[in-house]
User: Fold Cytosine methyltransferase from Hymenobacter amundsenii.
Amino acid sequence: MAEHEERKHNLVHKKEQHRELRNCLTPAEASLWTYLQRSQLGRRKFRRQHSVGPYIVDFYCPAEKLVVELDGAGHYDAVGNARDVDRTQYLEAQGLRVIRFENKDFWSHPESILAAIEAAFLNTNVTNQTKN
Assistant:
């Protein structure tokens, strides 16, 4: 890392918060993690509850610079939506791609969510997939 670059990933002062979040995944996050861990999806490594600057993202694939977010009910009011917009803009400014899915969509069609994540590996233009 260059001397002038600020460290933005997995900040030390957020270590305890990462641990807490990893131990308290939502049911949808825990289920998705079973598909992503140990490089099972497209042979890509994912990290769960990974910090980028002031944010902790649900899942991060370093090789693809891809953030995967599973959103529950708290994301669908005006305040939650505004926070998501700010967060996505920040992450994209860091050179990351962000795709979001609703928890209910994961439960209804997990294979579609996994296919969309895998498709993002091939299509580097995929960014900020909106919630349906």
Notes: Residues 1-5 have pLDDT under 50 and may be disordered. Strands lie at 47-52, 55-61, 66-71, 97-102. The two ends are 38 Å apart (CA to CA). The domain at 12-122 is CATH 3.40.960.10 (Endonuclease; Chain A).
